[in-house]
Design a protein that fits this description.
It is a single chain. This protein is α+β, with helices and mostly antiparallel strands. Helix content is 35%, strand content 16%. It has a ten-stranded mixed beta sheet. A five-stranded antiparallel beta sheet has the order 21-4-5-26-27, with helices on one face. Strands 7, 22, 23 and 24 form a four-stranded mixed beta sheet that branches. Helix 2 crosses helix 6, helix 5 crosses helix 8 and helix 13 packs antiparallel against helix 14. The N terminus is likely disordered.
Length: 801
């Protein structure tokens, strides 16, 4: 009895201590959240007085009274107040030093980023930026360090017992390189294509990969190219003589029937854990999911007679979110929109004269090279400091075209074949930050294009509009110059190294696709094909994203403009549209199919009653998602595909026209019936037999995992959030990304709709909130608005907006 009494006393006091600690934790977090970031404050910066005035959503209006650099200084300070843990975490990711924080669990992520060498490339790039950009970067760095001196660090640092170091200007370039590197994924497809050729011939691979409908939307038409005085025909006389090495030809004799037998051991199929920085850092690195949307319409079709511009980049849904909203004002500066913590400029938004939206361009900028044995490599030993463990030594090999990535491809260091990755993101003369500095001050189309010419990486589609009534588009970034030939439509594969290709030329900026004021009155970019095959340079040999979102945006714009002049509500409605064009493509095939199986017949009946919208209340959306998952698995599994591009376009093509999936109409009907039956069987097993409980919102949930400590089970409950959400794969309002459990871990990371006729009327939203403090009122206060398709306006708008 005495022992039992002692045990109960110990348990009681343990709970009391735990409650006291929890209350102290909450109290500390509450005070740190509210004492420092509410209301108006005045900073005495090295550049004069600056006022930071936050609205109820925590969005800072920053007014530099005497020098624009004061605004960049205050942005660094304000961002650190709200998001310092995010800033520091991303700095450790880019530098390959996460293990200083988390120990052995992040060594693989550190190896990945040390191998890429982003930190060294960023440091070398600083002198190549303009003085104005360098000054802005330095001011921002000083602002972050001013916050550090306050000693009010986020809770994560208390938990980890870690004290951060002061920031350097080169850390800002690290952040830019980190964001850029996550948007380079085309080399993954090259590697998988190589592996697939061990199992199929080139014609079959082409059938699976190279299918973009001839009548599908492209961002620019051939007429647009001609109107912009760009090359628009294959047989044009190209400017200057192009050396033969820039003419794309098949680099390997893949069509040889013995190729697979002689190469199978040399190129083992990669698995999901390769070519990855691990799930721990994926969203932070900016890795793209299923694209982004941006479009603009000119004043001839709008209520105001001035353009409207919409943009919503799709990135990882982490906590806190990718973007930090801000409004910067100085004597000659007036810009607002989305900033990326760690970069001192508005990356997507508008100033007093122009607005812009961004999507990642689906073009080939990264290339895998198969190196011969004699190629000279530079070898260095990286020392990775590991928390509570001895340092880990890691050997990095670098070629003159980029890092050797055998480890990331699952190849042993002593493998017969050495594989290197070449990409502009590794440039040691990266001027991309100049481009965004220029955007923040641009007054017109000329300023805009001058700024865009400074982008190195990643390649971007930029949609433009201005208060003078113009709309435009520019493809930007360093894109390797490849001339289109009759063999150019072969799927992309790694290239053999050739010394003469070390410094491959890029497509001249003035020859990159652009247009000002197209005759059809709108411009759409949704990661769809940029130009048709009449354009003489190769941008991409296989589009990784199909045309469904772009087609739906075009369809809605056409319908609405035929009925009325467009207003803000039309643009927000399109941005939140959940109609599935994949379903419309598959519906005729289902209509003509006949089944004897009860599950398949029941599934067909439910689908034919569905309106095609992936809304949260819809049961048809759930049936469709289950069926589509089975169709994709049926197509993927025989070939062990991991990095599958354009699966839905290819899938529809296979089922409609026959191919290696099903060669005859009867066989295709069998595939449709078998997969639908299996989908209904799984749906009944997992959700029960009552269709009233099959609503899409019950299983489709957006999850926001905290960047670092959110992966620790107990702490994750404090920071992580989730919410039911609408949308599906390739709906304009992008939803489900994971094909396994329908959890949404990707989606619109920011939405903006800009009214160039009345800039204060512009609307914005981010998925979570401005703060990374879970006890702040601004931690997740925009989540319901984001899910429900609602927006906010910036509360304060000084003259000029």
């Amino acid at each position: 009895m005495k022992k039992m009494f002692i045990f109960k006393e110990i348990l009681k006091w343990s709970l009391i201590v735990l409650c006291i600690l929890s209350a102290g934790l909450i109290g500390y977090s509450y005070l740190s959240a509210y004492n420092k970031i509410t209301g108006k404050m005045t900073l005495s910066s090295p550049y004069g007085l600056v006022i930071i005035d936050r609205d109820t959503k925590g969005i800072p209006l920053i007014k530099a009274l005497s020098n624009d650099l004061g605004a960049f200084y205050a942005l660094g300070f304000a961002t650190a107040q709200d998001r310092y843990w995010q800033l520091e975490f991303q700095r450790h990711v880019a530098g390959g030093t996460l293990s200083e924080l988390f120990g052995e669990v992040t060594v693989s992520a550190d190896k990945y980023f040390r191998n890429l060498g982003l930190h060294q490339a960023a440091g070398d790039s600083l002198p190549f930026l303009s003085k104005k950009t360098r000054d802005a970067v330095h001011a921002y760095t000083l602002g972050i360090n001013a916050f550090l001196k306050s000693g009010r660090l986020p809770l994560q640092f208390k938990i980890l017992h870690y004290t951060p170091q002061t920031w350097k200007d080169t850390d800002i370039l690290d952040e830019q390189k980190l964001l850029s590197s996550g948007m380079i994924n085309d080399y993954k497809m090259q590697w998988e294509n190589l592996n697939l050729l061990l199992r199929m011939n080139m014609n079959d691979l082409r059938e699976l990969r190279d299918f973009y409908p001839a009548d599908a939307v492209t961002t620019l038409t051939t007429r647009d190219l001609k109107d912009a005085y760009l090359p628009a025909e294959k047989n044009i006389t190209l400017q200057a003589s192009i050396p033969s090495q820039f003419v794309v030809t098949p680099p390997l004799k893949y069509e040889h029937q013995d190729w697979a037998a002689t190469n199978r051991q040399q190129y083992p199929l990669h698995r999901s854990e390769t070519i990855s920085s691990t799930d721990f850092t994926g969203p932070v690195s900016g890795e793209t999911g299923n694209g982004s949307n941006a479009w603009a319409v000119d004043g001839s079709v709008t209520e105001s007679g001035r353009p409207l511009l919409a943009s919503d980049p799709h990135l990882g849904l982490n906590m806190p979110g990718t973007w930090y909203l801000a409004h910067l004002q100085g004597p000659s500066l007036n810009v607002q929109g989305a900033t990326y913590p760690g970069i001192p400029f508005v990356l997507i938004g508008h100033d007093a004269n122009i607005a812009w939206g961004i999507t990642v361009a689906d073009v080939e900028t990264a290339t895998l090279y198969l190196l011969p044995p004699h190629v000279k490599l530079t070898t260095t030993t990286e020392r990775i400091k590991v928390r509570n463990k001895p340092d880990f030594l890691y050997t990095v090999r670098y070629s003159d075209i980029g890092p050797v990535i055998n480890d990331q491809l699952g190849l042993k260091t002593d493998a017969q074949q050495t594989v290197a990755l070449g990409c502009p993101v590794f440039s040691h003369q990266d001027t991309t930050l100049d481009a965004f500095y220029g955007l923040n001050y641009a007054a017109n189309w000329r300023d805009f294009r001058k700024a865009m010419s400074r982008v190195v990486s990643p390649a971007l589609n930029i949609i433009y509009a201005d208060t003078a009534g113009n709309i435009g588009y520019q493809l930007t970034g360093e894109i390797p110059l490849r001339i289109r030939t009759s063999d150019s439509n072969l799927p992309a594969v790694p290239e053999w190294y050739n010394a003469s290709l070390n410094k491959k030329n890029n497509i001249p900026f003035n020859s990159l696709p652009f247009i000002l004021n197209p005759k059809n009155h709108y411009i759409i970019s949704a990661n769809n094909k940029i130009v048709d095959d009449n354009y003489p340079y190769i941008l991409v040999r296989e589009n990784g994203v199909g045309p469904f979102r772009a087609e739906r945006i075009r369809q809605l714009l056409t319908e609405k403009t035929a009925d009325h002049k467009l207003g803000m509500s039309d643009m927000t409605a399109i941005q939140n549209d959940t109609f599935s064009l994949i379903w419309i493509s598959l519906k005729p095939l289902l209509l003509s199919a006949h089944f004897n199986d009860h599950n398949a017949t029941h599934g067909k009946s439910l689908l034919l009653q569905w309106n095609g919208h992936m809304d949260m209340q819809s049961t048809g959306a759930t049936v469709f998602a289950y069926w589509l998952r089975e169709l994709v698995l049926t197509l993927r599994l025989p070939w062990e595909m991991n990095e599958w591009g354009m699966e839905y376009v290819s899938l529809v093509h296979q089922l409609k026209d026959g191919g290696i999936l099903c060669h005859t109409s009867a066989a295709c009907q069998m595939v449709i019936g078998t997969t639908l039956s299996k989908a209904m069987e799984k749906l009944n097993q997992e959700l029960g037999s009552d269709p009233d409980k099959w609503q899409w919102g019950r299983i489709h949930t957006a999850k926001f995992i905290e960047l670092g400590v959110g992966h620790i089970p107990i702490l994750g409950k404090i920071w992580n959030r989730s919410i039911s959400s609408p949308g599906g794969i390739d709906t304009v309002n992008l939803g489900q990304r994971a094909n396994v459990d329908f959890v949404q871990d990707w989606g619109p990371s920011y939405r903006q709709v800009i009214d160039l006729g009345n800039l204060p009327n512009s609307q914005y939203i981010i998925p979570t909130g401005q703060s990374d403090n879970p006890f702040s009122r601004n931690f997740a206060d925009m989540m319901n608005l984001w899910r429900n398709g609602k927006y906010i306006r910036f509360a304060t708008a000084p003259p000029g907006f």
